[in-house]
Amino acid sequence: MSEAKSFHKFRQYAQAILLACMLLPMEAWAAPELSSENWHFEMSKNIAIELADTPAWSMALPYLAELTPKTQDWNVMLLHAKVELQRGNIDEADRIIQKALSANPQNARVLAMAGNIAADAGRYNDAVRYLEKARSIHPNAAPIMLSLARIRFARKEWLEVITLYERALSLISPTSEIYVRLSTAYENMGTLERAEFYLKENLEVHPNRHLALMPLERFYRRHNRLEQAEQTARERAILQQKKEEDTRSLRALQKSAR
């Protein structure tokens, strides 16, 4: 190994030790001394946890790949499955989450992740089974409801979509996704008044009103409400023009400030 490579490897190792020390809580310094193997495990786990939720999440993979075969810790396996899923490696994520499930069959978070992985793989029946079991353990967990609602939406199970999203709305703040999908479900059920209601509600939560007006305009055109469609289109055009003018003004200011 060249001197430059040796120095680079040493620097990486030193940085890892420093990061692990920074992550350890103060109480750890007064705790009983860990064995070398346990210390290495905890150090790697802490580094992986920190890296997994950063833009450098892929750097957590070598640590997690080393940790997962050695542990029944569902937190480690859940994190490893999440990173593999972000890489697009669904089969490996599924293998890891199945190991976590065998050790923790009643853990709602593991079941929910298993459901999301199955959904990404197109195994909707498995996904619903895992997510419904997770929901039976934590019936008021909105993230589980939203995952289930997305699957029901993909399968065009409109009544279930409405039930899940409206229940979620009683627990969390509304989002554009919830309102637009509720509108779609109600429209497909033939309840046009509720479909229109949710598209109008979407105008209040969408960060760009001119974009939120588009599905409302299309809704009016689908149902031959042409006067309202044209009125909505005019409002959208005015807002779009204003946004473009604001963008040009901001660029001009930025240019003059250089």
Give the gist of this structure.
The protein is mainly α and 258 residues long. The chain has helices at 3-23, 36-52, 61-67, 74-86, 90-103, 108-120, 124-137, 142-154, 158-169, 176-189, 192-205, 209-222, 226-256. The two termini are 47 Å apart.
Mean pLDDT comes to 84
- The CATH architecture assignment of the domain at 42-133 turns out to be Alpha Horseshoe
CATH class of the domain at 42-133: Mainly Alpha
Q: Give me the CATH fold name of the domain at 42-133.
A: Serine Threonine Protein Phosphatase 5, Tetratricopeptide repeat
Task: Output the radius of gyration.
Answer: 25 Å
Main beta-sheet strand count, sense and barrel state: none
Roughly how much helix do the residues carry, as a percent range? over 70%
- How large is the count of helical segments? 13
Low-confidence sequence ranges: 6-11, 26-31
Secondary-structure element pattern, one letter each: HHHHHHHHHHHHH
Proportion of residues in β-strands: under 5%
Shape: flat
CATH superfamily of the domain at 42-133: Tetratricopeptide repeat domain
Number of strands: 0
Distance between the termini: 47 Å
Would you tell me the structural class of the helices and strands?
mainly alpha
3D architecture notes:
With 258 residues, this protein is mostly helical. The longest helix has 31 residues, at 226-256. The two termini are 47 Å apart. The chain has a domain at 42-133: Alpha Horseshoe (Serine Threonine Protein Phosphatase 5, Tetratricopeptide repeat), CATH 1.25.40.10. Helix 5 (90-103) runs antiparallel to helix 6 and helix 7 runs antiparallel to helix 8 (142-154). The protein has helices spanning 3-23, 36-52, 61-67, 74-86, 90-103, 108-120, 124-137, 142-154, 158-169, 176-189, 192-205, 209-222, 226-256.
